[in-house]
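Suppose you are handed a protein chain with no further information: no name, no annotation, nothing but its sequence. What can you learn? This example shows the usual starting point.
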Amino acid sequence: MKVDWDAFFDDLKKWMEANNVMLQKYSFTSDEYWEWLVKTLSVIESRYHQHPLVVGFLSAILEYQENIWRNFYGSQK
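A reasonable first move is to predict its three-dimensional structure. Written in C-alpha cells, the prediction is:
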C-alpha cells in the first residue's frame, strides 16, 4: 500500500500539537494522558494501514515518551 507521506506528516504534526495540549491538561504520569497517547497513536497507525515505516515512526514516539517517564520515575527514587 502506498502512503501519502504529506498527509502522514501533517497528521503527525497535528498529533504533536495535541500532545502539547494534553500535557497541559493532564500530568505526564497520569493514566488519562497515557490512555490518550496509546489510543491516538493507534488511530494514526490504522489510518495508514500499519505501514512498517509508519509503525516505526510511531513506535519511536512511544519509546521516547516511555524513556522520559522512566527517567522521571528513576529520579524519584
